[in-house]
User: Fold this.
Amino acid sequence: MLNGKTVVLGITGGIAAYKSAKLVSKLKDLKADIFVIMTENATEFITQLTLQTLSQNPVYIDMFKLIEKAEIGHISLSKRGDIIVIAPATANIIGKIASGIADDLLTSTVMASNCPKLIAPAMHSNMYENPIVQQNIKNLEDLGYEFIGPETGKLASGDIGIGRLAKIEDIINKIIEILKIKKH
Ligand SMILES: Cc1cc2nc3c(=O)[nH]c(=O)nc-3n(C[C@H](O)[C@H](O)[C@H](O)COP(=O)(O)O)c2cc1C
Assistant:
């Protein structure tokens, strides 16, 4: 169970974003408190309304929209999470984080945070195997970022290869392992 734990879930603009609804739902079953941050591009793939309904919390997208009281959104969200999970993570977000870019709410929150970070990449195998993406992942791993997946199988394009989002159950087990919570 994840009682009393807060998961800040970043969702980015990949086709696997629809799977994040199941991730939110399962985390909710485990009694986690979930705050979703979507990139603008993620809203092309899944709605804020769906994620807000499933998480039972506001879903944040816009960096410059005043959220709670007089708080600065990315600072308050970065302090709130026991863990930040990005699932699915695009090649773009991995590159931005690895390069120290903080030009939207999700990347700014990651930059401001000192909690564990778990990244679940999902993309076409040609993107995943691109040496730039591999180097960015390695750089982030060297800095202590945790990764899970991707898996090999059928991709959205119809091709077979590496790039599928890790299974939701595996992402949840990894969150539990990182937070060092005993499984029941
Ligand atoms: C239909 C479609 C599917 C996409 N799927 C992926 C994907 O699975 N993984 C990925 O890294 N990029 C994917 N992209 C490209 C990203 O949307 C693009 O790199 C975007 O800039 C990501 O923005 P974000 O990281 O801020 O969410 C896809 C684009 C389209 C149009």
In short: The CA atoms of residues 25 and 54 lie 6 Å apart. The pocket of flavin mononucleotide is lined by residues 12-16, 39, 41-42, 90-93, 122-123, 127 (CB under 6 Å). The chain has a mean pLDDT of 94.
